[in-house]
Design a protein that fits this description.
Two copies of one chain form a homodimer. Chain A is an alpha+beta fold. Chain A has three domains: about 100 residues, Hypothetical Oxidoreductase Yiak, Chain: A, domain 1 (Orthogonal Bundle); about 190 residues, Ribosomal Protein S8, Chain: A, domain 1 (2-Layer Sandwich), CATH 3.30.1370; about 45 residues, Wheat Germ Agglutinin (Isolectin 2), domain 1 (2-Layer Sandwich). Helix content of chain A is about 40%, strand content about 15%. Chain A has a seven-stranded mixed beta sheet. Chain A has a two-stranded antiparallel ribbon with strand order 1-11. Chain A has a two-stranded antiparallel sheet with strand order 8-9. In chain A, a hairpin with a 2-residue loop joins strand 2 and strand 3. In chain A, helix 1 packs across helix 11, helix 2 packs across helix 4 and helix 6 packs across helix 7. Chain A starts with a strand and ends in a 9-residue tail after the last helix.
């Protein structure tokens, strides 16, 4: 059955599975488990502990190499290029973000480009980690191919998310964390299961034609790299699909282009390192003046939006990141929701690796 | 009649109108005229010399103050905050971008936040100006209110464009320059004139409801600040409208929030300075390694997109900025296109300010 788990119990279990089952070091397991549980706690189950299956597959297929230490390939006082050497994505990202924060603390700013990493969980976590240091934080990553450029029909770019975080008054953090695709693949799978037609602008078929039948689309999706997700704005240029594709391509250039790493199309080669690339940026808030004054300025803009007049039938305007921050608070208070399939999968893993007893599952 | 003008003739005329007619200094006139003519040359007439009317109105209404020098309000080796003091927008932007490039040349990176400026023309020009220095360039700006947040009905944010430029192999520059609204207001005006229904996702009415009748929408648009443009992704969350709104809000926080300047809602107060705010960023390419190698890496990704498989009925996938770069080349070769209304307006201004004879108009 589905139900709630305590944040700490879930973190401990995920960490034990990664350490005992997957052969991650204690540090690799701890940081990866944190990313997974944070996603579930924030109401983003697509990046939660159910991803343990994906991380397992990455191990089995030789894409990720636990126990591998990232190295610095190039650095200046305001930049660092990290080579992840095919290590654990969250561990590599943590290394790069810490390095960026350390350099930004000394120099004011740091950009970090990362190559040969793996999936690093939710991008927003890393941007927020930087913002907690009273810095403006940004995190980008390419991913396995998911989307089709405007006027194309081949999946050649990833979901290529953009995450930017700014400290706000009252200890809050503004966090925009968005895939540049219109929707994630999980949404399409949901429409398939419910036999519900998708809105136009989500995906195109193998000829690059807009398609709304999720079941038909899903069938073709795994047969070839033709057809795939559209980027924000949908098909063609009329409603700005070329802008969303442009954002995805920008993310690709920052991550893969500047790190000299694999582009989305070349990630996860058969038997080779996943090759995922990231880009992070940190800039101290006091570069622009007194931090308290700047946070108040950011807060005043956000307050004006929160208090702005609502559309018919609506009683709230959300600030990016608010829903997730509130879900997280609720999860810490009353537990992290796990659906039945995920609970079952965790139970299976715990039994398989001799972890337990896990009586709360 | 409509027709083409030589780039240099048009630049000279626009500059003369600004200097002789509007009282701009030679520098203010030169840089502003360049921005306007560059927009026409690139096929972006909404930001071309027809904007002379808007710049005139800004003068008449006391929003812009020619002859005012921007000052540095705060600086570090990697940042600068510029106070435009209500000066000419393009002149203020030019000052801030030059300062950012100068600091980035010395320190590797520079972020510049600008307050109390005015309209600075096409954002892409500034990002590209930075990229020409073998740097990654970014330019953001807020604008007069244009758009409505997801679930809102009040125009409270601008078109808040994002422009990012990266040097590519072969001397080319990747340039993404996009309003975060789905479309610009010029598109809505065009549909109004043609009595053509707009696609859903462009605008909402005064109650925040999706509306497709451009004539009806235009009528209400000037009566109050209710109703307005939607951001990339359209209405609601189903097709990602909250992401586009999130991007617009991010631009607002970077520009207005970090410069301590006016938010879009507070720009152009009756009789006061326009108060537009900008944000620029420059980062030397060699922060990440050998520039030639990085440009080749960026170029290889772009080549893979250009050469990728095309959708049914399409024979080309565009890289952001390519259409505009090609239009510019064509304009330099065979002249800059001006429509009849714009030619007539230029003639009127030339006569009014005693400039001429302008026999090519």
């Amino acid at each position: 059955m589905s139900g709630k788990a305590s944040y700490d119990d879930l973190l401990e279990l995920a960490s034990a599975i990664l350490a005992k089952g997957y052969g991650y070091s204690a540090s690799e397991a701890g940081i990866t488990a944190t990313l997974l549980v944070e996603a579930d706690a924030r109401g983003i189950p697509s990046h939660g502990v159910s991803r343990l299956a994906f991380y397992r597959a990455n191990l089995d297929q030789g894409h990720a190499r636990p126990g591998t230490e990232p190295v610095i390939a190039h650095e200046t006082p305001v930049s660092v290029v990290v080579d992840g050497k095919g290590g654990v994505g969250c561990y590599v990202a943590d290394f790069a973000v810490r390095k960026a924060v350390e350099k930004a603390r000394a120099s004011g700013v740091c950009h970090a480009a990362v190559r040969d990493s793996n999936h690093y969980g939710i991008a927003g976590y890393w941007a927020e980690m930087i913002a907690k240091e009273d810095m403006i934080g940004a995190a980008f990553t390419n991913t396995y191919i998911a989307g089709v450029p405007t006027f194309g029909n081949l999946r050649i770019l990833g979901t290529n998310p953009i995450a930017v975080a700014l400290p706000e008054a009252g200890g809050r953090i503004f966090l925009l964390d968005m895939a540049t695709t219109t929707v994630t693949h999980g949404k399409v799978e949901l429409y398939d299961r419910r036999k519900k037609p998708m809105p136009e602008g989500w995906v195109v078929d193998e000829l690059g034609r807009v398609v709304t039948d999720a079941t038909l689309f899903e069938k073709g999706f795994y047969e070839s790299n033709l057809g795939g997700h559209l980027y924000l704005g949908g098909a063609g240029e009329e409603s700005g699909g070329h802008k969303g594709y442009g954002l995805a391509l920008l993310v690709e250039l920052l991550c893969s282009g500047l790190s000299l790493g694999a582009s989305s199309l070349n990630t996860y080669p058969k038997g080779g390192n996943g090759g995922i690339t990231h880009f992070f940026s940190a800039a101290r808030l006091d570069l622009f003046g007194e931090p308290a004054e700047l946070k108040a300025s950011v807060g005043a803009i956000l307050a004006s939006i929160r208090e702005s007049s609502k559309a018919e039938g609506r009683d709230r305007i959300y600030i990016p990141g608010e829903k997730e921050a509130e879900a997280r608070e609720e999860s810490l208070r009353s537990g992290v929701f796990l659906d039945e399939a995920t609970r079952g999968y965790l139970k299976k893993l715990a039994a398989e690796y001799g972890i337990g007893p896990v009586d709360w599952l």
